[in-house]
Amino acid sequence: MSLAIGQKAPDFTLPSTSGEKVTLSKHLKGKPFILYFYPKDFTPGCTAEACEFRDQFEAFRDLDIPVFGVSRDKMESHIQFKKQHRLPFELLSDLDGKVCKAYDALIPLIRMPKRVTYLINEKQEIAAVFSEMFESKGHIQSMLKNLSS
Hints:
Elements: E1 13-15, E2 21-23, H1 24-27, E3 33-37, H2 44-55, H3 57-62, E4 67-71, H4 75-84, E5 90-93, H5 98-102, E6 106-107, E7 112-113, E8 116-120, E9 126-131, H6 136-148
Parallel strand pairs: 3-4, 4-5
Antiparallel strand pairs: 1-2, 3-8, 6-7, 8-9
Helix pairs in contact: 2-6
């Protein structure tokens, strides 16, 4: 289960691959954005998903929609992952899993992030959600469809 459409997006502050911390209520206030959670850098499904966001990034940029990927990986891993796959968006490190948990994107017991993508509107509410662990490309298509409707 994921957060419901219309629900207020939980606030967070996480370090990013830019070297800056990203705070929803400060840096993203009044601006829609994509927040996607994924299990682990360099795994086949997560790499396919990140590369699909990269390949479709121009569509998000044209709509002025920032994209952020979140996992529990260390920043060093995120930096290598971003560089190796030429990702044009920021990756956020949620080492303790608190943000993943707040967004209902954490698998209990193993404490690994689920694959779930949120479109968060300018009011910081959940506008769309796609949650399918084994359909990495579907996340991007679902968000683009929601943005065009």
